[in-house]
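Q: Late embryogenesis abundant protein LEA-2 subgroup domain-containing protein, please. Structure only.
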Amino acid sequence: MVKNYPKNLTQNSSSSMMILPIYNPQKTQKKSNKCFVYTLATIVLLFAVLLIFSCIVILVKNPTLKINSFVINSLNYDNTPTFNLNTLMKISIKNRNFGYLDFDNKINNTISIIYGNGSVLGTSELKFSGNRVGSRSEEEIQLKMNLSYLKDNFNGFLNKFDGMKFEDDLNLGYLEFIGYANFRGNVHLFKNKVIRRAIVHMNCSIGIDLRKQLVERLIC
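A: Structure for Late embryogenesis abundant protein LEA-2 subgroup domain-containing protein:
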């Protein structure tokens, strides 16, 4: 005897088999790999941002100091030898940092004009407005200085070798000097929460034609 089962029972069994979820281990592994890659990329990106921030903002760059112009107001010299030069210089300092730069009030920051092997012909105190330079800004000042040498009134600035060479250069009508300055300051970051030391250095070469009374070379 053949039993007849209801049609709807057979269909229901077939439907139940079709909707069973299928587990795919490869798809789960791909999702895990993507999460790992995204996390690693985020960490690398954050590290790069922090590195750039520290290089641009926190890392202190030494300010630059230079002589922009060297003007001869008066010049007198002869073969005795006697030398006297009055000059007006324009000197600028550039602060490349994101914090302001200030100088120590207890220390006199000076600029010197040097001849030969360290013989100082003139020196002057160097002061900027408010004794500070703003964030990422540049300031310029005018400075008068007198350079002199008188053999009969030897002031000890010129050593014997420099003195002999200086007299020869006077006769030739051409002198070379070095404009030199080296002092320290402080860079203030994040409203004075971070303070870094900075070195201000200048070394400029100056060449003067005595007969024409012209500055032929000024390199900083």
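A: Brief note, in case it's useful. The chain has a mean pLDDT of 81.
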